[in-house]
Design goal:
The chain has a domain of 100 residues: Chitobiase, domain 2. The protein is 29% helix and 28% strand. It contains 3 helices and 12 strands, in the order H-E-E-E-E-E-E-H-E-E-E-E-E-E-H. The longest helix has 33 residues.
Length: 188
Amino acid sequence: MALEIRKIGTEKEAEKKSRRNTLILSIVMIAILVFSTAGYFSLREDTGTNTGSGKVQNVGGLWHFDYNGNDIKLSSPPESAENISVLVLNKIENYAGKTVYVASEYDSGWYEINSALQNYAERVQPACFGECTKNLPEKDCNETMIVISRLNASVEQKGKVYEQDNCVFIEGNIDAVDAFIYQIFGIS
Protein backbone atom coordinates (compact mmCIF):
# COMPACT_ATOMS: atom_id res chain seq x y z
CA MET A 1 0.00 0.00 0.00
CA ALA A 2 1.50 3.24 -1.08
CA LEU A 3 0.97 6.41 0.82
CA GLU A 4 0.61 9.59 -1.05
CA ILE A 5 2.78 12.37 0.17
CA ARG A 6 1.41 15.87 0.05
CA LYS A 7 3.67 18.59 -1.17
CA ILE A 8 4.44 21.20 1.43
CA GLY A 9 3.90 24.65 0.05
CA THR A 10 5.34 27.92 1.09
CA GLU A 11 3.47 30.38 3.25
CA LYS A 12 3.09 32.67 0.27
CA GLU A 13 1.43 29.92 -1.81
CA ALA A 14 -0.95 29.05 1.07
CA GLU A 15 -1.94 32.70 1.46
CA LYS A 16 -2.51 33.02 -2.31
CA LYS A 17 -4.70 29.90 -2.32
CA SER A 18 -6.68 31.22 0.67
CA ARG A 19 -7.30 34.59 -1.06
CA ARG A 20 -8.40 32.83 -4.24
CA ASN A 21 -10.85 30.62 -2.32
CA THR A 22 -12.20 33.64 -0.41
CA LEU A 23 -12.66 35.56 -3.68
CA ILE A 24 -14.48 32.63 -5.32
CA LEU A 25 -16.74 32.18 -2.27
CA SER A 26 -17.49 35.93 -2.19
CA ILE A 27 -18.40 35.99 -5.88
CA VAL A 28 -20.68 32.95 -5.44
CA MET A 29 -22.43 34.52 -2.42
CA ILE A 30 -22.95 37.87 -4.20
CA ALA A 31 -24.31 36.05 -7.28
CA ILE A 32 -26.77 34.09 -5.10
CA LEU A 33 -27.90 37.32 -3.44
CA VAL A 34 -28.34 39.18 -6.75
CA PHE A 35 -30.11 36.32 -8.56
CA SER A 36 -32.43 35.53 -5.66
CA THR A 37 -33.49 39.18 -5.42
CA ALA A 38 -33.98 39.45 -9.18
CA GLY A 39 -35.85 36.15 -9.20
CA TYR A 40 -38.21 37.32 -6.47
CA PHE A 41 -39.24 40.38 -8.47
CA SER A 42 -39.44 38.60 -11.83
CA LEU A 43 -41.48 35.67 -10.51
CA ARG A 44 -43.81 37.79 -8.41
CA GLU A 45 -47.40 37.74 -9.67
CA ASP A 46 -48.36 40.87 -11.58
CA THR A 47 -51.60 41.95 -9.96
CA GLY A 48 -52.05 45.05 -12.08
CA THR A 49 -54.82 45.69 -14.54
CA ASN A 50 -54.23 47.82 -17.60
CA THR A 51 -56.98 50.31 -18.25
CA GLY A 52 -57.51 53.02 -20.78
CA SER A 53 -56.36 55.69 -18.34
CA GLY A 54 -53.45 53.90 -16.72
CA LYS A 55 -52.65 50.97 -14.53
CA VAL A 56 -54.64 49.82 -11.53
CA GLN A 57 -52.49 47.82 -9.13
CA ASN A 58 -53.28 45.64 -6.14
CA VAL A 59 -51.12 46.84 -3.27
CA GLY A 60 -51.75 45.32 0.13
CA GLY A 61 -55.30 44.27 -0.75
CA LEU A 62 -56.35 47.69 -2.05
CA TRP A 63 -56.60 48.69 -5.69
CA HIS A 64 -54.54 51.81 -6.46
CA PHE A 65 -54.46 54.07 -9.49
CA ASP A 66 -52.90 57.45 -10.08
CA TYR A 67 -55.05 60.35 -11.21
CA ASN A 68 -53.22 63.66 -11.77
CA GLY A 69 -50.64 62.79 -9.12
CA ASN A 70 -53.18 61.63 -6.52
CA ASP A 71 -53.18 58.01 -5.41
CA ILE A 72 -56.77 56.74 -5.43
CA LYS A 73 -57.33 53.59 -3.34
CA LEU A 74 -60.38 51.34 -3.75
CA SER A 75 -61.53 48.05 -2.24
CA SER A 76 -62.56 46.35 -5.49
CA PRO A 77 -60.71 45.61 -8.74
CA PRO A 78 -61.95 47.16 -11.99
CA GLU A 79 -63.19 43.74 -13.13
CA SER A 80 -65.81 43.78 -10.35
CA ALA A 81 -67.34 46.88 -11.97
CA GLU A 82 -67.91 45.15 -15.30
CA ASN A 83 -71.14 43.47 -14.14
CA ILE A 84 -72.62 46.61 -12.59
CA SER A 85 -74.82 48.92 -14.60
CA VAL A 86 -73.36 52.43 -14.36
CA LEU A 87 -75.46 55.08 -16.10
CA VAL A 88 -73.61 58.21 -15.02
CA LEU A 89 -72.43 61.02 -17.27
CA ASN A 90 -70.61 62.97 -14.54
CA LYS A 91 -66.84 62.93 -14.40
CA ILE A 92 -64.61 63.93 -11.49
CA GLU A 93 -64.52 67.50 -12.82
CA ASN A 94 -68.26 67.79 -12.01
CA TYR A 95 -67.44 67.44 -8.30
CA ALA A 96 -64.45 69.79 -8.25
CA GLY A 97 -64.84 72.69 -5.84
CA LYS A 98 -68.31 71.61 -4.69
CA THR A 99 -69.67 70.32 -1.42
CA VAL A 100 -70.68 66.72 -2.04
CA TYR A 101 -73.23 65.28 0.36
CA VAL A 102 -73.20 61.53 0.88
CA ALA A 103 -76.07 59.54 2.36
CA SER A 104 -74.91 55.98 2.92
CA GLU A 105 -76.52 52.98 4.58
CA TYR A 106 -73.08 51.59 5.42
CA ASP A 107 -69.82 53.17 6.56
CA SER A 108 -67.54 51.55 3.98
CA GLY A 109 -69.49 53.25 1.16
CA TRP A 110 -69.07 56.64 2.84
CA TYR A 111 -65.35 56.11 3.46
CA GLU A 112 -64.72 54.95 -0.11
CA ILE A 113 -66.44 58.02 -1.62
CA ASN A 114 -64.75 60.39 0.84
CA SER A 115 -61.31 58.91 0.17
CA ALA A 116 -61.70 59.17 -3.61
CA LEU A 117 -63.23 62.67 -3.76
CA GLN A 118 -61.46 64.45 -0.90
CA ASN A 119 -58.76 65.95 -3.13
CA TYR A 120 -61.27 67.22 -5.71
CA ALA A 121 -64.43 68.31 -3.94
CA GLU A 122 -64.43 71.35 -1.69
CA ARG A 123 -65.88 69.15 1.04
CA VAL A 124 -67.39 65.66 1.30
CA GLN A 125 -69.98 65.59 4.05
CA PRO A 126 -72.36 62.95 5.40
CA ALA A 127 -76.02 63.86 5.08
CA CYS A 128 -79.49 62.37 5.01
CA PHE A 129 -81.45 62.01 1.80
CA GLY A 130 -84.72 63.63 2.81
CA GLU A 131 -85.90 63.52 6.41
CA CYS A 132 -83.95 61.63 9.04
CA THR A 133 -83.54 61.19 12.78
CA LYS A 134 -79.75 61.50 12.75
CA ASN A 135 -78.00 64.75 13.55
CA LEU A 136 -77.09 65.33 9.89
CA PRO A 137 -78.21 67.89 7.32
CA GLU A 138 -81.27 66.81 5.32
CA LYS A 139 -80.60 67.20 1.60
CA ASP A 140 -82.31 66.39 -1.68
CA CYS A 141 -81.37 66.38 -5.36
CA ASN A 142 -81.14 70.18 -5.45
CA GLU A 143 -77.66 69.66 -3.91
CA THR A 144 -74.77 67.61 -5.27
CA MET A 145 -75.53 64.35 -3.54
CA ILE A 146 -74.54 60.69 -3.63
CA VAL A 147 -77.04 58.23 -2.13
CA ILE A 148 -75.74 54.74 -1.34
CA SER A 149 -78.17 51.99 -0.44
CA ARG A 150 -77.75 48.25 0.02
CA LEU A 151 -79.51 45.77 -2.17
CA ASN A 152 -81.63 43.16 -0.48
CA ALA A 153 -79.24 40.28 0.29
CA SER A 154 -81.73 37.73 -1.05
CA VAL A 155 -81.86 39.40 -4.45
CA GLU A 156 -79.25 38.11 -6.90
CA GLN A 157 -78.41 41.48 -8.41
CA LYS A 158 -74.99 42.97 -8.90
CA GLY A 159 -76.09 46.53 -8.27
CA LYS A 160 -76.63 49.63 -10.34
CA VAL A 161 -75.61 53.27 -10.43
CA TYR A 162 -77.69 56.01 -12.02
CA GLU A 163 -78.20 59.80 -11.98
CA GLN A 164 -81.29 61.84 -11.30
CA ASP A 165 -81.02 65.63 -11.23
CA ASN A 166 -77.96 66.41 -9.03
CA CYS A 167 -78.07 63.02 -7.29
CA VAL A 168 -76.22 59.83 -8.01
CA PHE A 169 -77.90 56.72 -6.64
CA ILE A 170 -75.68 53.74 -5.93
CA GLU A 171 -77.56 50.54 -5.17
CA GLY A 172 -75.44 47.59 -4.10
CA ASN A 173 -72.34 46.71 -2.14
CA ILE A 174 -68.86 48.24 -2.17
CA ASP A 175 -68.33 46.90 -5.73
CA ALA A 176 -71.12 49.24 -6.93
CA VAL A 177 -69.53 52.18 -5.09
CA ASP A 178 -66.18 51.41 -6.70
CA ALA A 179 -67.82 50.99 -10.12
CA PHE A 180 -69.08 54.57 -9.77
CA ILE A 181 -65.63 55.82 -8.75
CA TYR A 182 -63.92 54.00 -11.63
CA GLN A 183 -66.49 55.56 -14.00
CA ILE A 184 -66.03 59.17 -12.88
CA PHE A 185 -62.23 58.83 -13.04
CA GLY A 186 -62.42 57.29 -16.52
CA ILE A 187 -61.15 53.86 -15.45
CA SER A 188 -63.56 51.51 -17.19
